[in-house]
From TrEMBL:
It comes from the Bacteria. Keywords: DNA replication, DNA-directed DNA polymerase, Nucleotidyltransferase, Transferase. Gene3D superfamilies: P-loop containing nucleotide triphosphate hydrolases. GO terms for molecular function: DNA binding; DNA-directed DNA polymerase activity. The keyword Repeat does not apply. This is DNA polymerase III delta N-terminal domain-containing protein.
Length: 352
């Protein structure tokens, strides 16, 4: 029984670590039309940063002459300050979109916010992305330093985590509707999974299927859509289970620059889902993913997860979760030093 309590607490930790109250609150703000005049968008998912930046622009119904954009190296402090400070005699608004990968000095942020406060018709939106030459830790520190200035009246800082399946499908459903497409959720789910759960890739792929002029079918995904996403952590976990060469996949993931903490979290998610299948099959005798996960997986994927789950024993899950937890603790303590993934793979291979 104690093992089940440990796994139940892990489930609660997993759900809470993935949930972003900031995003939900921002959705409410957008729906109400109460857009803060100073916005700082940042986080782990670059697609969502840009997606919500576009939604802000759309919600404000800006005229072309009201928009001003500065992308990355185009940023000039004095030019931006001049736009934010300049009031219009005709009641027009001034909107500045600033896309950055480099942290702004606090002195400049405060000066720009000061200019904004004196001009009630001005808006300033920052989309802050992680630069390729910065680690996730460095990016997080920069975000924290800048976000502190965007708290208070008519200001907001919004952090975006990687979207879960439900959030991804909601965005894809909305996009399909805007393209005039008639689609089913299971079709959208298949498209998302073919693209290795990369929401941005699946989102862009929808335009291709909109050109069909009819309701897309599953066979259309096989014919027209290709897995353009990066090597997934799920592929690594499947290779471990099937006792195939997992090292090559691990090296590919490392070359992509994926942070250790993110890798560890995704592996925990994968094996936790398998454990849910294992427990449900033992208790109820079926592998209905809608009962297990709360949504229906494509039949082929559901059957694959069920086969993998019943091939393991309770002791396997406990030892795998222990190995992953030890890896997580080493990362948090700074003792992993880039070797954590390979040491975890060796342990899990020995367990399986």
């Amino acid at each position: 029984m104690w093992m089940w309590r440990v796994l139940k607490s892990m489930a609660k930790w997993w759900e809470s670590s993935r949930r972003s109250v900031y995003k939900r609150e921002f959705d409410t703000l957008l729906a109400s039309g109460k857009i803060p005049r100073a916005l700082f968008l940042y986080g782990e998912n670059p697609f969502l940063i840009g997606y919500y930046g576009a939604r802000v622009v759309e919600r404000l119904s800006l005229l072309p002459e009201e928009k001003n954009s500065f992308y990355f190296g185009e940023y000039e402090f004095q030019a931006l300050k001049g736009i934010l400070a300049q009031s219009s005699l005709f009641g027009d608004r001034s909107f500045v979109l600033l896309r950055l990968e480099k942290k702004l000095p606090k002195k400049e942020i405060d000066a720009l916010l000061g200019a904004l406060e004196k001009n009630p018709s001005a808006y300033w939106l920052i989309e802050f992305y992680k630069a390729e030459n910065k680690s996730a830790t460095e990016y997080s520190q920069d975000c924290k330093a800048m976000a502190g200035s965007f708290k208070g009246n008519e200001r907001a800082e919004v952090r975006f985590f990687d979207p879960n399946q439900g959030e991804s499908l909601a965005i894809l459903r909305e996009r399909a509707l805007s393209l005039g497409m008639e689609v089913e959720d299971r079709w959208l789910l298949s498209l998302w999974m073919v693209q290795n759960q990369e929401l941005g890739l699946a989102y862009n792929e929808l335009e291709k299927f909109a050109l069909l002029g009819r309701k897309p079918e599953m066979r259309d995904i096989e014919r027209l859509s290709y897995g353009l996403g990066s090597v997934s952590v799920e592929e690594l976990c499947v290779a471990l289970l099937e006792k195939k060469e997992a090292l090559k996949i691990a090296l590919a993931l490392e070359e992509e620059g994926i942070e250790e903490m993110a890798l560890c979290g995704e592996m925990e998610r994968f094996f936790y889902q398998l454990f849910l299948f294992y427990a449900h099959i033992r208790v109820h005798g079926n592998s209905d993913s809608s009962e297990i996960l709360g949504y229906k997986l494509p039949k082929m994927i559901e059957e694959k997860k069920a086969r993998a789950a019943i091939g393991l024993k309770e002791a396997h899950f406990f030892r795998i979760f222990t190995a992953l937890q030890e890896w997580r603790e080493k990362i948090m303590q700074g003792r992993s030093r880039g070797r954590g993934l390979f040491l975890a793979l060796i342990k899990i291979q020995a367990i399986l």
